Amino acid sequence: MSERIRGVIKWYSTKKHLGFLVTNEGNREIFIHINDCLGFVPGIGMPVEFEIGLDTKGRSKAIRIKRVGVGASYG
How many other C-beta atoms are found inside a 10 Å radius of the C-beta of residue 29? Predict the structure, then answer.
């Protein structure tokens, strides 16, 4: 299993079901898609924990994204 990384949702489109998060360390922007979110819909400013994977074109994306912190069980 890959290293778990923490970050915050920076931008998310509920119409397109995609967006970006920013890592807590290094402020790296990572692509996210609803299919990689485990039991929740992302919202701006939401703290998350995730792993880095690759999309079908070999680009980095967040995978196995979990909400963390207050209200983490909210879906």
Answer: 12
Q: Which residues contact 52 (CB under 8 A, 6 or more apart)?
A: 2, 5, 30, 60, 61, 62, 63
Reported pTM: 0.87
pLDDT tens-place string over residues 45-62: 999 999 999 999 999 999
Residue spans of the domains in the chain: they are 5-64
Q: How far does CA 65 lie from the centroid of its chain?
A: 5
Q: 8 Cβ partners below 8 Å, 6+ apart? A: 21, 22, 24, 45, 46, 47, 48
First to last CA, the chain: 24
Q: CATH top-level class for 5-64?
A: mainly beta
Is there a contact between 6 and 24 (Cβ–Cβ < 8 Å)? yes
Q: Which 8-state DSSP code applies to residue 70?
A: T
